[in-house]
Structures are given as C-alpha cells and as structure tokens.
Design goal:
Its cofactor is Zn(2+). The protein has eleven helices and eleven strands. The chain is α/β, with parallel strands linked by helices. β6 and β7 form a beta hairpin. The structure holds glyceraldehyde-3-phosphate and zinc ion. Zinc ion binds at residues 85, 140, 144, 179, 207, 229.
Length: 283
C-alpha cells in the first residue's frame, strides 16, 4: 500500500536523515527505484512530474503500475507516490483521484497571498483523502520540464505563514539550489535554512538534489531538510549506461537488452544516494 509522506518525513526530521524523492520515467525506472529501496530497507518517494505522467499515459497508468509493482515485487518498505511540481489545484486533484498519496503544489511564482490561498485549497482536498502536500516558497533555479528560472531565496516569515495558514506537510524553501547540473559548487543559504527550519519546525524539501556534494547534503539535513529530490543524476547515469551498451555492442537490437544497463545504473545510484541521505535501514 502506498503511504503519504507525512509520517516518513516527520520521522526523518526527528532522526536527522532525509528521504529521497527519485523521479521515475517508465516501468524499468520504477522497478529499479523500488528494488533499491527494498534492498536498502529505506522509505522512498517516487516523484512524477506532470510531463513524466503525460509521457507514461497519465496518472492512472502510473498509479496502477506502481500499485501492481508493490504487490508483485513484495515491497514492504514505505512508498509514497508524489506529484512533483503540480501546477494547479486541478492537476493535484487529478493525481490524488488517480491514487497518488502525495502532491506538490508549486505556486511559488505567484504573489505570496495567492500562493498560500491556492496551496490551502489543495491541502484541504488532499488531507480529506489522506494525501500529503508539499508547497514551495521562493524559486528553485535552473531548468525542469522546459521551464527555466533564476534563483530567489525563500523568505522566513512567508515560510512561517505558509506552514501556519496552509498547514502543509513539507515545505520547499528555495535557498540557492537549482534543477539540472550545477556550474561549480552549489551555494546554498545555510544561515537562512537554519532560520526557516527553527521557525517552522516543518520538514524542509531540497529540490535540485543532483550534484550537491556530500558535505553540503549533510549540512542541509542537519538544518532541517528531511526530503531531497533527485532527478537529473538518474537521467545522466541511465543515459551513460545505455550509450555505453550501444557503443560496446554493435549487434544488439533487443530493446530489453539495450536498456538493461540503464536499470542497473539506477538501482546502484539510488542505493548509493540513500546511504548518503542516511535513510538506509530506516524503513
Ligand atoms: O523536483 C525535482 C527535483 O528538484 C530534481 O532536481 O533534477 O536537479 O535532481 P534535479
Ligand atoms: Zn524540483
């Protein structure tokens, strides 16, 4: 059974580790992520962007696939199915109605009052269905699903208002992280991070988790992050492995053999990442 993020994130906040959100793109990717979580005895959040959901045939296809895999793979660790960067109330509602156990409503590009008001609507609906909600304050930089933007730090008072007024379960307070590759070392606002964590006492979410060095990940967890999102790195290791397979084997044409190394690379990367986040053996 899918579970919401609420319990796993509150446990992580208390235990000073982070649960990874790993974004999925297809069947093998999902199998790989679940296999890694079970092997690490770790909770996991499967992230699905609106684009990835559309690619896979819609939310119902995704949730049916995930639920079937939980059964056939005998998955016993906690698994949340989470809409990543939901762009509207309707988008979040359709994911929940299709069986997602969690959503992110990303109204961060709207004025704060509008952001809170829209987030609150999503929270009211989600909580009535037992699903959890993540909101965003400030702006994560970089490009995701074709949308590019600059970094804008989250404001502490606005973060507090979001938590108190909308009652979100997790808060993505943008503090310098970017989607996609970093050019050089990431520069995260650790001082602001600590301030927001101390003020809100709510699990914080670090977007743009790919390419952040271990010591910065550890500090982000120390300063209140209990969820870290990883997408780009998985795409990179998958593509590298498949490219190498094709380069090494000019005769291969069975698609299952072509992409098999991609799946192995995902399992390995998710397991390694869970170790860094400290979620291994925390199921
Ligand atoms: O919401 C998804 C993430 O923030 C992923 O960021 O692609 O840089 O790992 P990333
Ligand atoms: Zn993100």
């Amino acid at each position: 059974r899918l579970v919401s993020m609420t319990e796993m994130l509150n446990k992580a906040l208390e235990g000073k580790y982070a649960v990874g959100q790993f974004n999925i793109n297809n069947l093998e990717w999902t199998q790989a992520a679940l296999e890694a979580a079970q092997a690490e005895n770790s909770p996991i959040i499967l992230g699905v962007s609106e684009g990835a959901a559309k690619y896979m045939g819609g939310h119902l296809v995704v949730s049916s696939m995930v639920n079937a895999l939980l059964e056939t793979m005998d998955i016993t660790v906690p698994v949340a199915l989470h809409l990543d960067h939901g762009s509207s109330y309707d988008s979040c509602k359709s994911a929940i109605d299709a069986g997602y156990s969690s959503v992110m409503i990303d109204m961060s590009h709207y004025p704060i009052d509008e952001n809170i008001e829209n987030t609150k609507k999503v929270v009211d609906y989600a909580h009535s269905k037992g699903a959890s909600v993540e909101a965003e304050i400030g702006t994560v930089g970089g490009t995701e699903d074709g949308v590019t933007g600059g970094v804008q730090y989250a404001d502490a008072q606005e973060s507090l208002r979001m938590v108190l007024e909308a009652k979100v379960d997790a808060l993505a307070a943008a503090l310098g992280s970017v989607h996609g590759p970093y050019s050089g070392e990431p520069k995260l606002g650790f001082k602001e991070m600590k301030e927001i964590s101390d003020l809100t006492h709510t699990p914080l979410v670090l977007h743009g988790g790919s390419g952040i060095p271990k010591h910065q990940i550890e500090k982000a967890i120390e300063y209140g992050h209990s969820k870290i999102n990883v997408n780009t790195e998985l795409q990179q290791v998958w593509t590298k492995a498949v490219r190498e397979k094709l380069a090494a084997d000019a005769d291969v044409y069975d698609p299952r053999k072509v992409i098999a190394p991609g799946k192995e690379a995902i399992v390995e990367t998710v397991r390694k990442t869970m170790n860094i986040f400290g979620s291994s053996n925390k199921a």
